[in-house]
Amino acid sequence: MSLTFCNVHFSQQPEKVVYISNTLMKSLKLSGKKNIQLRLGNDTIHAAVKSIKKPGKHLFLGSAVRRGIHIPSAGGIYIRNLQEDEVQLGPLIGVLSDGPTNTSQPFSSRTGFIKQLLREGKKKCYIFAFTPRDINWQKDTVNGYFLGDNGNFYRKTVPLPDVVYNRLPSRKAETSSSINQLRERLSRRKIPYFNWSFFNKSDIYRLLENDNTVNLYVPESHMSPTPEKIKEMLERHQFLYYKPSAGSLGKGIYRLTYLPKKGYFARYRKGSGNVLLRFSTFSSMMRMLQSRHGRTLDSYVIQQGIRLVEIDNCPIDFRFHMHKNGNNKWVVVGVGAKKAGRGSVTTHLKNGGSLLTPEQALSRTFGSKSDEVLQNAKKIAITLAEGIEFHHQHLLGEIGFDLGIDQDEKVWMFEANAKPGRSIFSHPSLRSEGKASVEHILEHCLYLSKFRRRDSE
After folding, report:
1. Could you tell me if 302 and 321 are in contact, meaning their C-beta atoms sit under 8 angstroms apart?
2. pLDDT digits (tens, 9 = 90+) for 270-288
3. What keywords were assigned to this record (predicted)?
4. CATH number at residue 276
5. Predicted local distance difference test score (pLDDT) of residue 314
6. Same domain (yes/no): 263, 344
7. Domain end among 177, 194, 211
8. 456 in a domain, yes or no?
9. How far apart are CA 256 and CA 406, in angstroms?
10. Longest dimension (CA), the chain
11. Residues 23 and 75 placed together within one structural domain of the fold
C-alpha cells in the first residue's frame, strides 16, 4: 500500500472521469491504468482515469464522481491505493455526540470542543460530527455537521466513516438499546469505534484486582459493601470514600470518618454547600445513608481513604489526561493538580476546588524532588492505562485518571474516566496541552483508519 497527500479539485465535468497529475499517478502506482475504483468510506465508484501534466500531486473530480461517493469538499487529503485498481480518499472521521436539534449549539456544552476538533482535523482528513439520529442505515450514510471556514456548521451527507470517536454525553443514553444497536452495526461493518462507553468504578476495580502489576496502585475497594464491611474498613483505615459506581463530577460521594471516643462523621455535598454530620453510633450513620439513597446504595463502592499531600490543609489530587498516539502507544498529554475547596469531599472545580499546575502543587510538598515525583507518577499512569486496556474488551484511545500522591510519594489511582472532562486545559499554563490532546485524538483516528502519515507533501 502506498499512502500520500494530495490536493483534490472539483471540476464541472459530468463524466465519470478522474484526472490525476503524473506525479500522483507514480506515487499510487497507477501509471498505464485506464480505470480505477475510487473509494470514500464504504462508497465506491468505477471511473475512467486520465493523467494530466501538472506539477505536484493533484486529483480532479467531476460532478458525477463527487456525487457518486459523497466527497464533502475540495482541498488537501490523504489518498492510498488499496489493491490493484482501487484507491481511497480519507480518512473519513466521525465524532459521535448528541444534543438539542435546531440550534447553533447542536452538541450543547461540547460544541466548542467539537468545533476545535473539526477545525484542526480539516488540515489532514474529512472530519464531521453527528448524532445517532443523523444515520441512515438503509443507505449507510450520515447527514454530518462539517465546519465551514467562517466557524459555522453546515450539513453534508457522507458515507459511514472509517472510524468513530465516541463523545456521547450521557450514561443513560449510552446504555439504551438504540446505542447498543448502533455499536453492533458499526462492529459488523468493521468500523473502529473508540471509546466504547463510560467506565463504571466497580468495573475498573474488578478488571484490575487480580493484576499484580497495577493493583498495588488502587486503594482497597469493595463493591456493594455490607454495613459490616464498611465498619470493619473504617476501624482499619479511619476514613473511607463511599461513592456511586456510575457517578461523575463528585455527585453522591461521602467521606466517612471514624474517630475513637469522638464518633462517626459523614461529609458530603448538598446543593452549593458542604455538610458535616456527626453520629454517636455507626448504625445511626448507616440509617442516614439508607434514608437518603435507599436501594441505590446497592451500586455504591467503598474505598480506602488515603492521606494525600496538602496545600493550606486542603488535599490535592491530579488529573492525568492520557491518549493513544499515532503509534498506538499510551502517553501523558496533560496533568492538572486539583486542590479541594475547604471542607469539600472532592477536588472537583464545581465543588469549590481550584486548579494548579503539577509543578506548583508538588514543589510545595516535595521541593527539589518534585520533578522526580511527577515523572514517576507519569510512568505509573502509563502502566495503569496499559493495564486497563489489556483487560478491557473494547477499543480505548483516551483515559482520564484521578491520581493521588501521599506523603511517602506513593501514587494511588482513585478513578479512571473513559470520557474525561477537559477543565484542566482551561488553566493558562495547560492550553498547549489542550491543543496536543486534540492532535493526539486525530493522530489516533489516522492510526485506526490505517491512514498513516508517511508523506505530507
Report:
1. no
2. 887 889 999 999 999 999 9
3. ATP-binding, Nucleotide-binding
4. 3.30.1490
5. 87
6. no
7. 194
8. no
9. 19
10. 90
11. yes
CATH number at residue 27: 2.40.40.20
Give the Cα separation of 91 and 274 in Å (integer): 49
Please name the residue ranges forming H helices in 260-406: 282-293, 358-366, 370-391
Contact 97, 168 (CB under 8 A): yes
Containing domain of residue 112, as a range? 92-194
pLDDT band at 457, cuts 50/70/90? very low
Q: CA 399, CA 396: separation in Å to the nearest integer?
A: 8
Q: Are residues 297 and 352 in the same domain?
A: no
What value does the mean pLDDT of the chain take?
91
- Residue 19 pLDDT more than 60? yes
Task: In whole angstroms, give the CA distance from residue 280 to residue 261.
Answer: 9
Q: 370 and 286 share a domain?
A: no
Across 201-345, where does the E strand assignment appear? 221-223, 239-244, 254-259, 263-270, 273-279, 300-304, 310-311, 314-324, 330-339
- Measured distance CA(428)–CA(413) in Å, rounded: 26
CA atoms of 174 and 171, how far apart (whole Å): 5
Same domain, 62 and 11: yes
Q: How far is the C-alpha of 448 from the C-alpha of 157, rounded, in Å?
A: 22
Terminal-residue alpha carbon distance, the chain: 17
Strand partners, 89: 40, 79
Confirm if 455 and 79 have CB atoms less than 8 A apart.
no
In angstroms, the CA 443 to CA 457 distance is 17
Q: What is the DSSP letter of 144?
A: E
- Phi/psi of residue 277, each to 5°? -115, 140
Q: What is the DSSP string of 117-169?
A: HHHHHTTTSEEEEE-GGGEETTTTEEEEEEE-TTS-EEEEEEEPPSEEEE---
Q: Which of 245-259, 300-314, 411-425, 438-452 has the lowest mean pLDDT?
A: 245-259
For residue 364, which phi and psi values (nearest 5 degrees)? -70, -30
Task: Note the pTM of the prediction, 2 decimals.
Answer: 0.88
